[in-house]
Each structure stands twice: as structure tokens, then as C-alpha cells.
Amino acid sequence: LFLKSIHIQGFKSFADKTKIDLQPGMSVIIGPNGSGKSNVADAVRWVLGEQSAKSLRGSKMEDVIFSGSSSRRPVGMAEVSLLFDNASGLFPLDYEEVVITRRVYRDGEGQYFINRTPCRLKDIQELFLDTGSGKEGFSIIGQGRIEEILNLKSDERRLLIEEVAGISKFRLRKREALRKLEDTRQNVDRLSDIIAEVE
Ligand code: ATP
User: Is the model's pTM score more than 0.80?
Assistant: First the structure.
């Protein structure tokens, strides 16, 4: 799966529209402390559905919106898009390129898009589950992450390998099916009660 470019606007330190082009293979982001390197990695994880403000180094999701600097006023919206090459058809979509977008406004309202069409977070997660490149798929290795992987407990490491191998999707489907089964069981119980009352 090849990420061709990252488009960032109003996200953390990126007040202006910024485009980062990537080449096939490994990309390394370098720069002085505080220049926004980790913010790029945060942006990528954010689009892929990161829901924890804390893991994005904030306290609430709106903290990702550019909050102003000595020379710039704050902005009202953060938007990040990832442009993927889909020539290989890894995403089951009939497009050569796939753009995933996430947006958040100051009032906390958020939106997701696949090729500029509004969608649910779940649609994006499903798209990535099989590719091994989800938000936990270790396409992004941040500072300290390597040590963290080495220190994982065996069951945690297993989950990681399952995601990369494309098994997580089935685990998710199983969980959903079990939940539906439980809902249905409760409905049946309720119906039995009603029938007993009527009889
Ligand atoms: P280091 O090497 O120290 O980890 P880094 O290059 O990874 O640095 P980041 O942590 O990505 O740097 O960027 C931090 C900068 O981003 C800080 O200057 C911080 O003020 C700025 N920043 C973070 N969130 C926002 C925001 N919502 N609005 C404006 N600036 C922000």
C-alpha cells in the first residue's frame, strides 16, 4: 500500500495548507525539536481514526485544531487527507487513487470522507483492516515505539501480528455477530415474557 501524499490544513502546527509528497519505500521526517515532526505522524494516525485525544498529545479532540501563534489567529477547522495509490487494487474500490479525509470543527463535530464522499469511521477502518496499515498497523514508527514493540506482552504482540496479517477483520466481525446474537436472545426472552403474560 503506497501513501503518495499527505495534505494537512489547520492541524496542530500546520496552519497553512501543506502537502507532503512521499516516495515508495521508507520515508523519514527530520527537523529541529518542536518543528512539527511528530505532528505529521499524529496527522496520519488521526485520519486513520485515532479516537484518543491523549494519544494525540491533547486533552480533547479539538486540541488538534491550530490554536494560533504570535503571528497567526487560530483557525476553526482541521483537515487532513491521505492520498493512496490504489493501482494494485488493494482497496476494494474501483479507483486508481483513494483519498481518505478527516475533518473536525471547534464545536467537536467531525466528518470522514472516502474520495470526498462522506462516510463513517467504520467504513475507513474496514478499508484498512485487510491491508495491515491501520492506525495500529505500524506503518508509522514513532519515537520510543520500537522499544515498546519489543516490550509487548505476548498476547499484545499476537494482536499486532493478527492485524498485520489481516485477521483482525474476522475478529471484529465475530464480535459484531456475537453482539447481534445476544440482542436477539434478549428479544426472545422479552417475547417469552410477553407471551407468558398474555396466556
Ligand atoms: P520533538 O523532536 O521535540 O519531538 P517535533 O518536531 O516532533 O519535536 P512536534 O511535537 O510535532 O515537534 O510539534 C510540536 C509543536 O507543535 C509545538 O511547537 C506546539 O506548540 C505545536 N502545536 C501542537 N499543537 C498545536 C495546535 N493545536 N496549534 C498550534 N500549534 C500546535
Answer: no
